[in-house]
Amino acid sequence: MKKTLLASVALTVLAGVAWAADDEKAIQALVDQYISTGYQQGEKQHLERLKQDETLITCSETRNIPSPEQAKAIIEREKATIKYPEGNKMLGNWEKGKEVFNTGFAMRVGVISPDKADKPRGGNCYACHAADPKEVAAGNIGNSLTGYGKMRGNSEETVKYTYDKIFNSQSMMACSNMPRFGHNGVLSPEQIADLVAFLVDPASPVNK
Ligand code: HEC
Asked: CB count, 10 Å around CB of 163?
């Protein structure tokens, strides 16, 4: 009895896998259609961002496990997108960075009423990372950044690593779950420099 049940569960699962492989393209097309027609009300819906570029297509198709060749191609392509602030000043103001880290508004889709165009954008970093230990709520998809500068210092190398990671996380990890803030135009190079300061400046609450 038990064996029959197990066998029939296994068969159902197998059938499901075969079906998924056959119809994957059709299902994806349907999903794309639902998404593109689902958010048509209001201005500033940023629907352009729902279109996947070559990098995201590779990550989606490989379920975030690209082959070594694919990963290498992504990292090269994404590295080439990084832009730096005026005078290469990658270390900004930690107090401004604290705001950017915390602010959750940027390029939303599906908003009911349009946001004011001059509303400052942020990175919503707490959605995935802990940082200032006084902040009450933080997500944990990303690692904790508390004590970041205390542990790594603020050498030129650390500053550049941190800047590049925030500007385009996929220039380091091919299919990272962290958004490409600079590349997507969510944050400006100056805002990213301020975030770097928030993470590495010894005076920042992150390092207290
Ligand atoms: C959707 C989740 C998500 C968001 C939002 C996010 N990150 Fe990340 N972040 C990650 C993940 C996951 C990693 C680790 C994997 C990797 O390296 O890509 C990471 C890694 C990092 C690293 C490298 C950490 C190390 O130990 O070397 C830094 C620095 C960083 N994030 C800063 C930020 C900042 C600043 C923001 C806001 C502008 C931000 N992250 C927003 C998910 C996120």
From this structure: 24
Number of domains the chain is built from: 2
The residue type of 26 is A
Question: 110, 41 in Cβ contact below 8 A?
Answer: no
Which tens digit of pLDDT belongs to each residue from 156-178? 999 999 999 999 999 999 999 99
Start-to-end CA span in the chain (Å): 63
Residue whose CA lies nearest to ligand 1 atom number 34: 125
pLDDT tens for 73-121 read 999 999 999 999 999 999 999 999 999 999 988 877 666 666 677 788 8
Domain membership of residue 20 as a residue range? 1-38
Instruction: Count CA atoms within 13 Å of residue 100 on its CB side.
Output: 24
Residues 32/51, Cβ–Cβ less than 8 Å = no
Distance 6 CA to ligand 1 centre (A): 42
Asked whether residue 50 is domain-assigned, the answer is no
Domain assignment present for residue 1? The answer is yes
Q: Are residues 116 and 194 in the same domain?
A: yes
Cβ of 177 closer than 6 Å to ligand 1, yes or no, is yes
HEC per residue, 154-177: CCHHHHHHHHHHHHCHHHCCCCCC
DSSP state for residue 114 in the 8-state scheme = P
CA distance 44 to 153: 40
